[in-house]
Amino acid sequence: MELRAQNGNLGNSDVRSWYNETVAPVSKLNEQWLRHGFSAEERATLAHGIRHEARIKARSFMADPVEVEMLRARDLQKYQNPHGPTLEHLVNKNLKAGMAGDDIFEAIINSSNRTSKEYNKRFGIK
């Protein structure tokens, strides 16, 4: 993937597909983490990390820097961070939604492999 990106052979739909494939295994990984006794907070941190790193890497694959800046601007407006939501942001969001304890972290884990239907549709991903 990185070589194709360096050669300019990646379209946004390729990048979007790669992103979706990268975050998809979080549910299976969570099952493994549970078996190994990881706490909800530890699992949420790992799940968030996978998604965050995938977001950053996907943007590095994108050919058009203007589109990358548009995504960063969107994230800055939505999350007050150009690189997407921080773990702290997600925890606070769930607190404001009335969650408490491990439910906060379980919600973060459960959302870590859900991707934007809007962006998937925009790039022809089903």
UniProtKB/TrEMBL annotation:
**Could you name the domain of life of the organism this protein comes from?**
Bacteria
Identification of the protein by name: Uncharacterized protein
Originating species: Pseudoalteromonas byunsanensis
